[in-house]
Amino acid sequence: MGNADSKLHFRKAVVQLTTKTQPVEASDDVFWDQFWVDSSTTVQDVFALVPAAEIRAVREESPSNLATLCYKAVERLVRGADSGCPSEKERQTVLNCTRLLTRILPYIFEDADWRGFFWSTIPGRHLDRDADDEGRPLAESLLLAIADLLFCPDFTIQSHKKSSPDTADDIRAIDSCEYIWEAGVGFAQAPPLNYVHDLNRTELLKLLLTCFSEAMYLPPSAENKVLNPWISFFCSTDNRHALPLFTSLLNVVCAYDPVGYGIPYNHLLFSDYREQLVEQAVQILIVTLEHEAGSAPGGPDNLFVNYLSRIHREEDLSFVLKGLARLLNNPLIQTYLPRSTKKIQFHQELLILFWKFCDFNKKFLFFVLKSSDVLDMLIPILFYLNDARADQSRLGLMHIGVFILLLLSGERNFGVRLNKPYALRVPMDIPVFTGTHADLLIVIFHKIISSGHQRLQPLFDCLLTIIVNISPYLKSLSMVAANKLLHLLEAFSTPWFLFSSLQNHHLVFFLLEVCNNIIQYQFDGNFNLVYAIIRKRNVFHQLANLPSDTASIQRALQKKKRTGISRTNSVENESMEGSRPAVPAEPGTLKASLEATPGIDKITEKSQVSQDGTMITVPHLDSPHTSKSSSAARSEPARSRLSSVSSTAAWSANSDWVSSWKAKLPLQTIMRLLQVLVPQVEKICIDKGLTDESEILKFLQHGTLVGLLPVPHPILIRKYQANAGTAMWFRTYIWGVIYLRNVDPPIWYDTDIRLFEIQRI
């Protein structure tokens, strides 16, 4: 009954606040205490009892009351942080203030006139902290109080003393580095699990995430060099808990094991409070680490980025990699009992965190690629890419997966590791094949291109760039993968496809480069690919003789209108047992809009591999893929490659344009190979009456082209390069994920978000 009473009291206080036309004095504690002292309301209660319309009404009609409410709530948090919340009543007050601020802050951010409120100092008022805190903006007092409360004995950490600290001095004297929440990086002892502490940490982190979410209310702009002041301050030396908090968040995420002790159905028997904490922790990490990309030179150092970039001990790097791999592989775990193991839902946040590690910490990237452990990351990424390919609401997931593989593919070791045989049998709706991890990657990329939804077309360049980057190191492609590559080349080299967009011929250049790299550098083991090239030799002859006169171009484009791309003419074998087909999003699914994908030439720089394996950056000249007329259009992402020509309505293919890039098609190596091998294969077939391809493969396996091919070209690797466009893309994507994942309570729902749009499918 008491709970119903306290809800009623709380609701009455809210109504009073919204109906009072006169300002309520800050000194009227009897009035203000109704909001946090006498009630015990859950965060869900607060969201239900404080409707959006009423917050906006107070903001517009009695702004001084809203200002005082925020000020008084922060004041109570500061008081709680200073006293160390020794009593249950004080802890409840802190939680009530935390929930109320989580509810109100988005409505402060959505109004441009209010956005500076927390960063102003309130004349004549200062929070009762140290004398030097006088004149601190409210935002800084709030952030420091949250940081202190996250290391508060018997509230969010286990007290080392028999009884709680007696004085405020004890709280101030706590060395939070001794109270890191979980063993792992830089900390050996695992504190005992305490679900109350986990719940309290989760609520405080939710408020912290809400503070950082001001970014959602600013429109996207690639030139956005303005730092998020909340993150800047929290991750600066002003926060004495920055290091232990960063370490706590990271260790809590990487040590988490959702399967626990392996008891089937354990997640149905009891709540996992640690999972809620892990989700909030990983979200705090990705938004604080996102921050650096647009930072102003000479600005304050983001300590979270600094600490992440300096992790270097082998055991720490291993702990992070194994933790991320364990969690990303969790949804792939197969059991004989349906739904018996817990499946986590925060794989997108984990992929972003992995990306940040690879991008900010080169030691981590080299550690990942040093052994086959990288394959423990590759398989879940390929699984998610394959699973999400038909679902428009998971477009961001497709991008982050592809961007990670693009980043990894810029390193030689990644290509080398892919030669390891693929023995795992994760159920995916792909053909059953025997081969390596490289074969798996190619088969899945083929599936994405041939049966993914239309919005994935801007990623085709990225997908093929990854295959180009790994191709010089692939020792032996399977027949299935070789046929998939040739099918893509066949589909992309049809005249109507080549002529229907400014960009489409780039895809053919990429695929020819793959064939050339393998023939020149890995000929010996790649008889399957050589055989596939011989079988599909017409494709190469047609490319070499591609007509470029105006009449032929017009004829090809007319034919296009009648046919449409062949998305199904590759013979599909049966899919793997236990796999589910990729399905589109359910109608009504919410999704956040994304920024346009920057073009491949904007996000990569070319490096040439020299004899000793070192990389030399190649200056950005006009690449052979681009003709003069297309360089102007390169900045626009190829948005609708396979849709109608409307994307480039003003442009149409002409003779000069076709001739300009046709002359640069790198066909010499393949034509020489066909010239040498086709007559030999035909002769064997006639002499021995062969119709069995295994005999031909045996012949090709022992064949050689030494001295017959042109001089090998230098290996060109396109390495991922961050820029303002990708920084903005990531910011939009990260906050879109966080918006959609925080539904209980729905912190930002129905507020005036400017960074992205929320759309229903």
UniProtKB/TrEMBL annotation:
The lineage of its organism: Eukaryota, Metazoa, Chordata, Craniata, Vertebrata. GO terms for cellular component: Golgi medial cisterna; Golgi trans cisterna; membrane. Pfam families: Hid1. It comes from the Eukaryota. It comes from Pundamilia nyererei. Residues 562-586, 618-640 are annotated as: Disordered. This is HID1 domain containing. Residues 627-640 have a biased composition (Low complexity). The gene is HID1. InterPro entries: Hid-1/Ecm30.
